[in-house]
Amino acid sequence: MVKAPTDPEQNRGFFFTMKEKEFYGKRTELYQDACRLPNSAEVTGNVHDKEMLKLLETVDGFKKLVHSIGVSIEMEDKNQSIDFRFQFYGKKDQYGGGANIYATIPADGSEQRLYLKDVEWTEDDNVPGQIILTSEDEKARGFITMRLYLNDGFEAPEQEEESPVDVDSKEYKDMISNSLMQIGNTKRIGKLIEKAKAGNDVTIAYIGGSITQGAGATPINTECYAYKSFVGFKKLLGDGDNIHYVKAGVGGTPSELGMLRFDRDVTNDGKIKPDLVIVEFAVNDEGDETQGDCYESLVRKILKLDYEPAVILLFSVFADDFNLQDRLKPVGIRYELPMVSVKDSVVPQFYDRAKRIITKNQFFYDMFHPTNLGHTIMADCLINLLKTIMEKAPIDKAYNPDFEAKPAIGNSFDNVILVDKKDNTDMLTINPGGFVYTDTVLQSVERELDLELTPEFPYNWMYDGSKNTDNVFTVDVECKALVVIMKDTGEVDGAVAKAYVDGEFVRDLDPYVNRWCHCNPLILVNQKTTAAHHVEIRVESDDIRNKFTILGFGLVK
């Protein structure tokens, strides 16, 4: 018997926060914190009312604005379903204290309405946290659309329709060509081209943040800009198996960390000798304490390698049009390096309604990361550079960067080395105190074509105050500079430490500043001359917050 339909739902205004966003695998995490949800409302839902955007930043505001949530999922197999969870973060217990909205969503494209009046809210509720999609199928692939229906008293903006992007059009190709900032000196890239076409082994490496890791790409291993541009480079260079790929992106980390992990993550401690390194930190280096010194030091470190790799500087962009290319491009000018700006390619046309090729919603997966199409555009910008060099630019006969002349920004960390339990502990004297354990809950990333995660800095020193009360880690060292790499965390047991150098307090080491499992480099010593220093890291633990991890150190002798 067919039931009579119920009374129709009141026609409420709504806006999108996701439109056919692609997901892949058994588990997909779509972060909504750190202003991601308001940004999605602005970019995807055309919301420009500042009050409405502000309300989306907190649970209290969310409840005031939103009446219900509409979720639809489409997959090739319409008989499948996806488990949906909207997790709200807590004030005290970030991951365990907030409310959750659960639903099982059929994959047939029909919208399921989730009503906020049915949610069991908690006293610890703080901010929208993340949306988690889970499936029994490790290769589950589909598209999620989400709308927020508004409470009475709020007016929804008009929702815009989008045209498909024609990547073969002249207009698209012109947009890509706008990314070429500078060809630079072509000597080293010319050597790469010659080696590859002769059938000799060539390695192309990428180092950067979460965009280089592949965030926003689905699946992350083959749809990321790094792999797509590598495939494009291969085709230009003969498409042989002699061309190899290294991907070393770590989310949320600046060149300050990149310079410390380059030897391990890119060269595998000297076993790999890349012929080309693409450096992508233009949206991550806001957190670089040195305002570009670390970035230039990393670039110089690569250029000074005795096998003379080529370097390309890649400047990606956030959804608010932010990047640091104006700060960093003097490094490219100083060393005559090829430079590619995704910002110069896409941002101007975002605001030209008559000639727009791609919208922000089509380009950005969230406020920080590109969609699959966005990753394609980034890859095409890089491929355009190499193609232009091969077709139009003369290959320079010499390249002699003057490393003794004044740097563009700074070179304090040219000779920095990584110190951890595995490497270089003979270069300083360590008394670990109670830091005798090894942390295995670490920031982990997808390397190369892997979907499995590889942990960063596994050879660490962990303090656990529930097992040991010796809360002081000491280092005696002669150095110009010393950087500590600490582990950030959002777990309730993360303790704060204080760092002292030669008896003087230097800084707090607080894992809750970033509040997620994350590698965080912080400078303790940075001087022009080498001197002896005594460093103490002292944990301030209690019965609950009693764990702290030192992932390693960066040392300049």
TrEMBL record:
Return the CDD domains for the record: SGNH_hydrolase
Quote the Pfam families the UniProt record gives: Lipase_GDSL_2 (PF13472)
Domain annotation SGNH hydrolase-type esterase: ranges: 207-376
The protein's superkingdom reads Bacteria
Q: Which PANTHER family match?
A: EXPRESSED PROTEIN, SGNH HYDROLASE-TYPE ESTERASE DOMAIN-CONTAINING PROTEIN
Name used for this protein in its record: Lysophospholipase L1
Give the organism's phylogenetic lineage.
Bacteria, Bacillati, Bacillota, Clostridia, Lachnospirales
